[in-house]
């Protein structure tokens, strides 16, 4: 059983909610249903689960409900366990097939507050755009992502106390125990292959079979492509979305990693295909990192939304799409290969999962900063990601830090190194990006 950080969020909701249902969002296959089932079975005497894909009759009954009594009657008619106030969690899954239930949640929590309600589904960012606004104050939400590196380490038997010590070491900028550093570096290299999709992780931890792992990953990729065909507005749009999705690995393999819209088709412009790009983002399967004119707070004011890098939501899927040669190179620990795209994909995943908006900076005078992140206190931190041994060469970072108008105090280089501190740059092991959180 995989330990997930999102479980703590659900426990907090259970203890502190007033009149709120919970919405668990996230891309397909990131573990939403499994998490809610585990939460329900562990913390309630009864778990009622209705899946609106598997149970079309229940979907029709819920859609036809006109008031709170009708809605609860429909749920009770298809309940697979007892409905007892204070003891039952009602889990409505795959709500993208029953979109109106999100607007009717007010009925449930107002009239039937003795029960707890969790809603979940995939492609909610795509499918819920067309419905009326969810009543304010009646729905809490959490977005799930693939297992981050810390969760992956837990799955591999690394105790949480190791990460407690790691947090202290990074916070104090002191070297990590060499044996721990080697172990975590080895697991990070493995994570580049496996990624964080729960089914893939569970299988690999149990079997350590790359062929079996790739079967899981290829099935997830195929399911994403099927979703595009099923949920895109038209056949023409689905073709463009699939084209963009399939281009991501090759675009990341370019030197500057920026997605060139002309790769979609000759003469293509972003304004023409903006909806197709945003479809992938809203579905949670792609992570855009937008360019900013200046790395100054607030970054969103300097955003150039037509210039971006596009990463996948899971580095394991990216490695799978790159082919077995890349997997073999990683297994053989070849140091003459540039793994920059994979490393940056992990950093993008971790930053996004931990609450950061994703930006990068590039201009002719300074050069390129792989990421720039902002903190609630108004501070901007530049980040460079290095996969090779020359991690201490970072001219763009030096020039950016030396520019007074930017007001950036220190930068971070994530690399294969242990913790080291320079004059204005902190060198941190790349796996420690999992410790960054927006506070």
UniProtKB/TrEMBL annotation:
Give coiled-coil spans as residue ranges: none
- Name of the protein described by the UniProt record: ATPase
Record-linked Pfam families: AAA_14 (PF13173), DUF4143 (PF13635)
Q: Which organism is it from?
A: Bifidobacterium leontopitheci
Q: Which domain of life is it from?
A: Bacteria
AAA domain: residues covered: 19-153
Domain DUF4143: start-end pairs: 226-388
Q: Which InterPro entries match?
A: AAA_14, DUF4143, P-loop_NTPase
């Amino acid at each position: 059983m995989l330990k997930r950080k999102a479980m703590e969020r659900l426990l907090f909701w259970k203890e502190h909610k007033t009149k709120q249902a919970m919405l668990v969002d996230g891309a397909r296959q990131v573990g939403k249903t499994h998490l809610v089932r585990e939460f329900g079975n562990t913390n309630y005497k009864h778990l009622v689960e209705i899946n609106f894909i598997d149970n079309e009759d229940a979907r029709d009954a819920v859609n036809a409900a006109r008031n709170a009594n009708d809605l609860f009657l429909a749920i009770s008619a298809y309940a697979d366990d007892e409905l007892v106030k204070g003891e039952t969690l009602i889990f409505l899954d795959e709500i993208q097939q029953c979109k109106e239930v999100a607007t009717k949640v007010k009925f449930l929590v107002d009239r039937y507050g003795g029960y707890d309600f969790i809603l979940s589904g995939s492609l909610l960012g795509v499918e819920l755009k067309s419905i009326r606004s969810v009543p304010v104050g009646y729905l809490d939400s959490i977005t799930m992502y693939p297992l981050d590196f810390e969760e992956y380490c837990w799955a591999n038997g690394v105790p949480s106390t190791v990460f407690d010590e790691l947090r202290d070491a990074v916070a104090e900028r002191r070297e990590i125990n060499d044996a721990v550093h080697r172990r975590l570096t080895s697991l990070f290299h493995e994570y580049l292959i496996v990624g964080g999709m729960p089914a893939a992780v569970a299988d690999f931890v149990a079997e350590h079979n790359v062929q079996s792992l790739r079967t899981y990953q290829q099935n997830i990729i195929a399911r994403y492509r099927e979703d595009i065909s099923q949920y895109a507005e038209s056949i023409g749009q689905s073709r463009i979305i699939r084209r963009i999705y399939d281009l991501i690995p090759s675009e990341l393999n370019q030197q500057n990693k920026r997605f060139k819209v002309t790769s979609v088709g000759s003469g293509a412009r972003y304004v023409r295909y903006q909806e197709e790009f945003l479809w992938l983002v809203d579905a949670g399967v792609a992570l855009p990192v937008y360019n900013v004119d200046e790395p100054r707070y607030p970054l969103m004011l300097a955003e150039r939304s037509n210039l971006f890098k596009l990463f996948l939501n899971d580095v394991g899927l990216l490695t799978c799409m790159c082919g077995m040669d890349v997997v073999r190179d990683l297994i053989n620990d070849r140091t003459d290969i540039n793994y920059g795209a994979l490393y940056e994909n992990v950093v993008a995943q971790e930053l996004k999962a931990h609450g950061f908006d994703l930006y990068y900076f590039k201009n002719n005078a300074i050069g390129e900063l792989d990421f720039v992140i902002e903190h609630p206190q108004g501070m901007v931190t530049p980040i460079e990601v290095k996969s090779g041994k020359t991690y201490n060469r970072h001219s763009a970072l030096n020039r950016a830090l030396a520019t007074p108008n930017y007001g950036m105090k220190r930068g971070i280089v994530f690399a294969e190194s242990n913790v080291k501190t320079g004059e204005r740059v902190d060198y941190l092991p790349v796996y420690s990006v999992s410790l960054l959180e927006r506070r």
